[in-house]
Fold each of these.
Amino acid sequence: SPFGPPAAAAAAAPACALPATSAADNGLAIEGVLRRGEEATLRRVLALRDVPAIAARLTLRSFDGPYCPAFDTLRPVLGPPDSAPRLRLVGNLPLLAGQLLRFDVAMPDWPAQLTVSYFMSNGEVAHLAAAAHPAGATVRLGEPRMGFPGWDVSEPFGTDLMVALVSDGPLFATARPDIEPQQAYIAALAEALGRARASGRRVLARPMIIDTAPR
């Protein structure tokens, strides 16, 4: 494909981004999340590599938040566009104070452990899910049920980052705290991904920006 080298360059260009790329003869698809203002950098790189604007399909969500330190850890396991895990929000953004965070996760075509973590603008990470699911399943998370009122939106408002990871078996030997500092989680995740890589286990990640706002 003529878009191979530009695809690699595009993925590496923004300093704070998680762009997944796929290339074909008819164009280049780039989807992911990036710090507000980085999209212009990405477009400049594509232009310098002679990728016509009409040939690049960009599906990018921008954020303001302290999430850049997580990206070096997540980038090696970022899944290509249109591959599992796929995330679909129930409802529309922004989510307003008091509304519930609900979403579907499309699992890969192999049995996998699903780990969902929610990075907040205050520098903390909430862990929403860690469970095994069958191949090809679509998992709905966040629906209220007996003993679980749901995840309702509250302060701090802004742009949050949700990350779904699917893996061969659990990533962590023991459960993570419900909420922990981002720095602690990134360190633990880097170790877990290193162990998975050393043992040949598959891991794929998918980020999603969640905008929240007061009513």
Note: Residues 68-213 form a domain with the Immunoglobulin-like fold (CATH 2.60.40.1930).
Amino acid sequence: MVFVQDGVRKTFAQFQQEVDQAAAGLLGLGLKKGDRLGMWGPNIYEWVLFQFATAKAGIILVSVNPAYQLQEVEFALRKVGCKAVVCPTAFKTQKYCDMLRQICPEIESSTPGDIRSARLPDLRSVIVLDSRQPGMFHFEDVMQAGSSQHVRQLHDLQKTLSFDDPINIQFTSGTTGTPKGATLSHHNIINNSYFVGRRLGYNWRPHPRVCLPVPLYHCFGSVGGGMCMAVHGISLVFPSAGYDGKANIAALESERCTFVYGTPTMYVDMVNQPDLAKYDLSLLEGGIMAGSPCPPELVKQVVSLMGIKGIIIGYGTTENSPVTFCGSPTDNMERKSETVGYILDHLEAKVVNPTTGNIVPLGMTGEIMVRGYCVMLGYWGDDTKTQECITKDRWYKTGDLGSMDAYSYCRIEGRIKDMIIRGGENLYPAEIEQLLHTHPKVMEAQVVGVVDERMGEEVCACIKLVDGEDCTAEEIKAFCKGQISHFKIPRYVLFVTSYPLTVTGKIQKHKLQEQAEKQLELKKAK
């Protein structure tokens, strides 16, 4: 592994030694099998280290979005009962330790490892990666905490771990706006990384060097990156802790990368780098684009401007560990640009009528459903939501509309749910609407995704004001700042007097989206 920005380079042998040391250290701090540990931070070495150390100790890693604000992180940690949190002191504008102290003021007067918090009753330990803080452990404390007794305990523990044990919780919001913890097992993510890696060609490419700018807290990064590294022996290159288009291109050249990951937004940034032509990308033979719909024109630009003839398109959901459909390096341009590939090995897919549940003919549009090793165990502590999306015979209902041809190549046609995909981030209008409704001048708010050339979609809030009130877009955005993650704050704010309605009085969001795009003079990508 290489973390270019931080100057960190690790061999497989070094990594294994430090994983064992960290795993024993976590046991030394009092964590045990089944406890939850929240990893809250950007793409840094310690993220991958704790991903594997927790798995080895049977501790469940909770992937926490590094952009989460106070309410979001408190909800996530409380929902799954995190016993420990690992984080840097801060990253960019995110003051992680300060936020934890705001939620748990008891930390200041606590002994490290013995936090007793009213708002987070399960939390006992905070592990800070880069500084000494009152009431918190330092990273080095973990690395020194594992005695020979804990090493033996770790060895004995291996006999009690099962491949079906939950090992990772990834948060994904629902249409209610309340985050749900998709719970994944060893079996889920090891199989997914194995079969994704084979589809990407890691079993025949000569020692791939993979550039990984996608965030580790997403399945795309942690499974497609970290797990693929372990399963297939690839080398990972992390250009920067947070996404930086120029750093990404520079790393492709300096680290002689042969493969690159990215969301469509990241590829837009790469192909639009003003000095792209001066970089030597001659070794770059392949890449995968996933995380949100991939415009056909962008796929063609990646091939023509970056020379990545082996670009591959992938599709999946967090609940499916994550990849379910993925193309092949040998696909023709039509398949690369118009489909998300074909179903992964040892998975089943079907397209059904969303109303009747009956399978539709090939080429017809319906809801995509998936079954197999990839389907999550369920949403943590939420059986009702789990049963809504996983049928009794273990078919996962994606909520996405699409069609399949005779070779199982899938075209995504749209979404049943109102989810907005902004630069690979899944955003749910209801959560943003709930916040906007707390503004004293707002009578009603509806949030839709509108087309954006760079991000795929942007957030647009269509607001009806309380009679007699005046308000500006800037006022609405300022109100949102600090209450929700920056990427959820509406890019556009439109003030309206009415919404398009059905005959039964329900708001037609697709028509509202069309009206917003027309008013903003936005055009769909061709």
Note: The chain is about 30% helix and 25% strand.
Amino acid sequence: MFLGITSWGVFDIRLSYFVKTQYFLKGRPVKTVALTFDDGPSELTPQFLDLLQQYNAKAVFFCVGEQIQKYPEVVKRMQAEGHLVANHTFTHQPKNILHAKALTNEIRHTDEALAHLDIVTPYFRPPYGITSPPVARAIRATAKKAIGWDIRSLDTVIHNEDELFHRIVRKLTNGNIILMHDRLPHTLTVLERLLQYLKENNYTIINNLE
């Protein structure tokens, strides 16, 4: 049973079992959500930014260091348009999550890539939401604040746009942090529907994680 509980604690970021993790907006403000995007920037990210700009919505982008170096102008645009840019490791390779030293280097390397763009972030989201003891040690070593989610869109698994949209909206409560990915075409389509839904239902979208 202990092994089962421990394994659950590693893979369910909401439990804060090994790592203290913020997975909803503080105070659970009524009809207020945060839109967060992982794994970017990508060639599709400018289209995500266009949509967010159209709806005057500010998001949080958890960026991968390699992608930051590949698309620096996109990251600059994120910051210029009021989005929050945060750390999501340098390579997003599963093997580098297994060892605290390797993950610490990944986080620091990404911080360096952001620093070249005059961006500093206290926020980190572990790949796959894994919060194992090595991840905990790396977060302590880099003095990061771990950010999770309480609505996981599963857009990397669910490609049907209707199913994806309804999965998100039926989970909406108050103060949700929603996880999506800004590298997937179907997510781009769903984002427009989601933004329209949130607007029509008087939701406020914020990217203040404090």
Note: The chain is about 40% helix and 15% strand.
Amino acid sequence: MQNAISSIQHQRRARKGALGKLDLMEERAAYLFLLPWLIGVVFLLAGPIIASVFISFTKWNLSATPTWIGLENYRRMLFDDPDFYRSMGVTLRYTLMSVPLYMVVGLALALLLNQKLKGMNFFRTILFMPSVIAGTAVAVLWSMLLNPDVGVVNQILRFIGIANPPRWLSSNEWALPAYVLMGLWSIGGGVIIYLAGLQNIPPHLYEAAEIDGANSVQKFLHITLPMLTPTIFFTLITSLVGAFQVFDGAYVLNGRGARRGALLFYLLHLYNEGFRGARFGYASALAWVLVILATAAIIITFRTSERWVYYEVDTER
């Protein structure tokens, strides 16, 4: 009996040793597969990020050794650079105009496309397709459509009796609203996210509401919106991040980065300072100010989300 017990214990120890070696081999293999990604993160992401912090306190034009100037770049930004405030104002106005518009229109289209009708998948595909087109191509297309002299939009406006239609992108008054409306072209991605959220709402909630006599508006206000708040919150965060990162379309419409106040977005100003003016220290300082402001906006959004975002799991605890 004692020999049998000893044999079993020996087999268990041998099995544990084999499993330990197998786990170690799998762990090494996992690190080996992760190594290219880790190298990329260190040299292409983390390294440049850390370097940009140092560069933001220097004067550097790539042709010489960076010269330490302390907070001079940040002082210049606040007191000697009117384009900093101009570009920040353009970006903030764009954010306030575009984020609510895109979210409301995206939700409205998602509600329409969520109907159980024949051929609805075709319309979903058609709506999503423009969102995969590159931003530069979209900007070139809309620059032709909104051409004040021969563009299709102004031709239609003249046809219906508007003798002097807006000059759109060449007008300081209309350039930013026109750019916001251009963004509706690529709203399909947000619509798909809303659709996923709508289809995740349990049908029995609507059935119970119908039994209680709720109409469509009441079901939307008391079921759809509360259950969709996590999706709305996600869309809000991604929309805010996207609004702070506007560059490619504005670059094309601004004549490859030329200074033009109406569409001088923050990243375009950063590009002008860094790659046109060869002031990479100052451009790095601009980048870090944007990171701080965007992070603050996202933190505030997360903090306030506790008041209006409803997670169904909270009721099951």
Note: The chain has a mean pLDDT of 87.
